[in-house]
Amino acid sequence: MNIETPDASLRRAFAFLAPYWRRLSLVMGISLVSTGLSLVTPYLSKDLVDQALIGRNLAALWRIVGLFALLGLVGYVLNVVSGLRYTRVSAAILFDMRLAVYGHLQQLSPRFYARTRMGDIVSRINSDIGEIQRVAAEAALAWVGNVLFLVGCVVMLVWLDWRLALLTAAVMPLSLWLLVRYRARLEARVADLRQRSADIGSFLIETLQASTLIVTSNAQARERSRFARLNDRFVDALMGMQRLTYLAGGLPGLIVSLGASVVFLYGGSRVVEGTLTLGTFAAFIAYQSRVNAPVQALMGLYTSIATAKVSWRRVLELLDAPLDVREAPDAVALDQVRGEVEFDRVSLGTERGLAVLEDFTLRVAPGTSVAIVGASGSGKSTLAYLALRLLDPDTGVVRIDGHDLRTLRLHDIRRHVVFVEQEPTLLHATVAENIRYGRPEASEADVTQAAAAAGLEAFIARLPEGLATMVGERGLQMSAGERQRIAIARAFLANPSVLVLDEPTAALDPASERQVVESYLAVMRGRTSIVISHRAAVAEAVDQVAVVEGSRLVETGPPRVLAAAGGAFSRLFRVNTGVRA
């Protein structure tokens, strides 16, 4: 992965701000007015002391106190307005960022998810982008306001008394040096903390999904111990980051405060000597006390921005994850599909260099059915990914109706070719909503018909709320066979030209298997279907069988012909008069 320079990374971050520049400019304008009013307030203390108190002028007292109150009220209103508007804008910006990451993740191939822990992905979308949003909402506007206020205060301090101003500024270089010294170390600590948090997230996702395995293996205590070790590492990283945060933000602030004590001593002595008026000194102290606040706030914000930079780098790692499949800029629309599917001398390897498919050639005629059979790990399921262009072959071509899939629009490919996974995905929704997912506009009658075709009629009749019954998280309130049939019903409802099924009856009993196979053949009659299976009943029901061994196609033909030939198909199923041993 390429490592970007800080400037390039920053430019990519600013690209998300560009669409909102008008709203941001309005917020900055309001903040500028509010800052200007805040700069006037400390100066009033000079007139309060010299004119009202020492001059014993009651009218001046009322006038100055009234201005204090008015400026405070107006400044408060402006701060609220600018803060709320900025929070809304920053939330919109950060949603765009989250949406960009989510959209990119949707384009990544199964290879990415095979090598990346889900906890890492969730941590970056949720925690890291959340941290960026927190800093953007709470810190960015404060950064601008504090810088403007600091510059204004410095100008007023120099104008009131340049000697005292120089004394105030003398401690700033040391404070800034300390801040910069700790920043790089802080970023490393923050990165470590983020990773430890992601480790916990990955552990929780993995073990909660494997709760049955853990309980039946009597591994509860072992997993609790592993959780404790991960938490200890997280706490260690947290404490290390907090120690550096206190050093990065506390030490510079402490030095600034000690410098203020010297200013009080020198300025007070000049008031005693009569070379500085009490009102001027009071105004200087008021401005200096206000200088300390933005200086310390900026130092604290500096550490916050350091954490946001770490989060941004982690987000960029997702945004920069390479796409295995890209739609061509001039991709061709495919409105109608006859259903011819062809794998032409296709080869594909893993990222580790192992061959998955080698020189694989197979043509599926329109309206016919083919079963791809073979031992586990022979590359059968990879053919499904290739047919839907979830992956591209290293060499060779995959075609539909004679068109290279790489020249077609991805949306059209996946509209005409529908895939049923071996372990189907169900959402936490009703049975009807899960069946309707591919065609949300489908009528209730269409849903019912698809469910019946998938052999779900009797099952749905037993459900307390019928099609409106919730299937539970990941469909776990249903059996494996029921989940599989719901997925098949979803595929039937999508009305595809080509249907690809990966072990569609693996979780079904023989009676249900026969029902699903019969329904499947009836629904797909006249359409193309590719079935990946290790079940003899499925292989014997199709028009053609393709046998894969060791990543290569070794035998093709009608199932009865292959059974009689005594070759790879016969050996795989030990077929004898159509009965699997």
Strand/helix succession: HHHHHHHHHHEEEHEEHEHHHHEHEHEEHH
Strand-pairing-aware structural class:
alpha/beta
Shape: elongated
The quaternary state of the protein chains shown equals: single chain
Taking all residues together, what is the mean pLDDT?
A: 79
Strand content range: 5-15%
Radius of gyration: 35 Å
What is the percent of helical residues? 55-70%
User: In which order are the strands of the major sheet placed?
Assistant: 6-7-8-3-9-10
Which runs of at least 5 residues are low in confidence (pLDDT < 50)? 575-581
- Biggest beta sheet summary: 6 strands, mixed
**Distance, first to last CA:** 51 Å
- The total of helices stands at 20
Q: Quick one: how many beta strands?
A: 10
How would you describe what is shown here?
It is a single chain. The protein is of the alpha/beta class. 64% of the residues lie in helices and 10% in strands. The protein has 20 helices and ten strands. The protein has helices spanning 6-15, 21-53, 58-107, 110-115, 118-160, 162-169, 172-209, 211-216, 220-273, 278-319, 380-387, 410-416, 431-435, 444-453, 457-462, 480-494, 510-523, 536-539, 559-565, 568-573, and strands spanning 341-349, 355-364, 369-374, 395-400, 403-404, 417-420, 498-502, 528-532, 544-549, 552-557. It has a six-stranded mixed beta sheet with strand order 6-7-8-3-9-10, with helices on both faces. Helix 2 packs parallel to helix 5 (118-160), helix 5 runs antiparallel to helix 7 (172-209) and helix 7 (172-209) packs parallel to helix 10. The chain starts with 5 loop residues before the first helix and ends in an 8-residue tail after the last helix. The relative contact order is 0.08. Mean pLDDT is 79; it is low at 575-581.
